[in-house]
């Protein structure tokens, strides 16, 4: 290109190609399948390996993605992929993420990062030591309407931040004959507060990391078939900047709510996931509003999902189609993954362990307040 090249011609130069990110998907169940599909359809990601201890799950997903199926973690760590997506049961994240980081891979791990504080710290330390990127699947952070809220809150448009409130309260339905299923076993899921920590994560992410004080109460778990399911938990947090966080979680709320709000001295922003709408409010008056997604079809799909029965999915048999808002959300997440690997930074790497540590502090606070009799005792 010479200095006399006209500007119009310069603009037509093709963009610099992004090197293909070579990836492996570890865990080919319900959510691992969605992640792997959306990764594979991203133009900058090539899913080369699908790993699951159940080889038939790995094989059926790999066949749909034109990837190789393996049933052994060692084949993932010894491969030359750049990135590993970890979507195994929660209690296995620590071992799987650590193995991938130690093998020099960048890692995207589904939430929650881990189910113990020691493991959370071990993983953030390992990422720093190995110089690899650790992204946690806090998918709500990547939704366009929520990202815009975060940009406004962190740029000072709301004034000084005073509080943030996250709410996820609904009735959770459990499949018939769930048997010995990890999602209903707190020693493997971490319990409901950890397993469903999306809005707790938003509170921590908006208010700047781990709260320095946590007060929390949980009611006694309810019996669902042969399982015990946590019911109602209310948590209050004080952050180092003196802002206060509130969080409500329920698996038994017939009058359901699904929302997040952040309030500053000048304005508040609130997202209602049930209506797929974000509102900018000043002194009680709505001054602006926008969608959770940029796309009306995804917003309608989110509204439709929020109206329907909330069930834990057993597994992905390849035949069930996830709602379009969910695949759209994971597509936004994949854009963030590529952005992070390209620039070394992104919203999924920020405060990777704050929500897990806040949830574990909440469990501990609840035990101090109520004693073991009030809740299951797995959260040591
Ligand atoms: N971001 C979200 O909204 C969202 C939604 C659902 C699940 N998740 C998370 O995704 C993860 C997976 O959940 P899921 O619903 O897909 O569960 P799942 O039970 O459907 O899938 C888990 C898969 O891991 C495999 N597996 C178990 N042990 C393994 C091992 N040692 N090595 C390799 N593979 C092993 C299982 O065979 C199964 O295929 C969890 O961490 C969960 O919290 C996130």
CATH class of the largest domain: Alpha Beta
Q: From the helix content, strand content and strand pairing, which structural class follows?
A: alpha/beta
Q: Give the termini separation.
A: 64 Å
Give a list of the ligands: nicotinamide-adenine-dinucleotide
Q: Label the overall shape.
A: globular
CATH architecture of the largest domain: 2-Layer Sandwich
Please work out how many helical segments DSSP would assign.
13
Largest sheet: 9 strands, mixed
List the helices and strands and how they pair.
Elements: H1 7-11, E1 21-26, H2 30-40, E2 45-51, H3 55-65, E3 68-70, H4 73-77, E4 83-86, H5 93-102, E5 106-109, H6 117-130, E6 134-136, H7 144-154, E7 161-173, H8 186-189, H9 192-195, H10 198-207, E8 213-218, E9 222-224, E10 227-229, E11 232-238, E12 244-250, E13 252-264, E14 268-272, E15 277-282, E16 285-291, H11 296-307, E17 310-311, H12 324-343, H13 354-370
Helix pairs in contact: 2-12, 5-6, 10-13, 11-12
The structure holds nicotinamide-adenine-dinucleotide (NAD).
Structure characterization notes:
With 380 residues, the protein is α/β, with parallel strands linked by helices. The chain folds into two domains: 21-136, 3-Layer(aba) Sandwich (Rossmann fold), CATH 3.40.50.720; 140-318 and 350-374, 2-Layer Sandwich (Dihydrodipicolinate Reductase, domain 2). The chain has 13 helices and 17 strands. Helix 10 (198-207) packs across helix 13 (354-370) and helix 11 (296-307) crosses helix 12 (324-343). The chain is globular and about 55 Å long. 45% of the residues are buried. It binds nicotinamide-adenine-dinucleotide.
């Amino acid at each position: 290109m010479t200095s006399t090249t006209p500007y119009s011609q310069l603009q037509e130069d093709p963009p610099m190609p992004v090197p293909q990110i070579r990836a492996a998907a570890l865990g080919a169940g319900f959510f691992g399948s969605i992640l792997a599909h959306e990764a594979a359809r991203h133009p900058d990601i090539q899913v080369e390996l699908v790993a699951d201890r159940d080889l038939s799950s790995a094989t059926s997903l790999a066949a749909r993605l034109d990837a190789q199926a393996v049933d052994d973690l060692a084949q993932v760590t010894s491969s030359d992929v750049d990135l590993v997506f970890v979507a195994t049961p929660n209690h296995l994240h620590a071992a799987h993420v650590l193995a991938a980081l130690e093998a020099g891979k960048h890692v995207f791990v589904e939430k929650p990062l881990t189910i113990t504080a020691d493991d959370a710290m071990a993983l953030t330390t390992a990422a720093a030591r190995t110089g690899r990127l650790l992204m946690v699947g806090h998918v709500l952070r990547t939704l366009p309407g929520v990202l815009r809220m975060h940009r406004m809150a962190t740029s000072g448009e709301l004034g000084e931040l005073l509080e943030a409130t996250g709410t996820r309260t609904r009735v959770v339905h459990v499949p018939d004959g769930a048997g010995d299923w990890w999602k209903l076993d707190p020693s493997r899921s971490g319990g409901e507060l950890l397993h469903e920590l999306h809005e707790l994560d938003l509170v921590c992410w908006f208010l700047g990391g781990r709260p320095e004080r946590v007060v929390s109460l949980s009611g006694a778990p309810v019996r669902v078939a042969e399982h015990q399911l946590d019911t109602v938990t209310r948590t209050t947090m004080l952050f180092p900047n003196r802002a206060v966080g509130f969080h409500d979680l329920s698996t038994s709320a017939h009058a359901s709510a699904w929302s997040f709000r952040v309030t500053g001295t000048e304005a508040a922003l609130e997202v209602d996931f049930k209506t797929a709408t974000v509102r900018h409010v000043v002194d009680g008056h709505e001054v602006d509003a926008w969608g959770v997604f940029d796309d009306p079809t995804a917003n309608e799909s989110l509204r439709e999902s929020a109206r329907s029965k909330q069930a834990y999915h057993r597994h992905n048999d390849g035949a069930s189609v996830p709602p379009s808002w969910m695949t759209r959300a994971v597509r936004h997440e994949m854009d963030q993954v590529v952005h992070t690997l390209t620039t070394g930074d992104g919203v999924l790497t920020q405060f990777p362990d704050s929500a897990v540590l806040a949830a574990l502090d909440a469990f501990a606070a609840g035990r101090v307040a109520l004693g073991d009799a009030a809740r299951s005792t797995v959260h040591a």
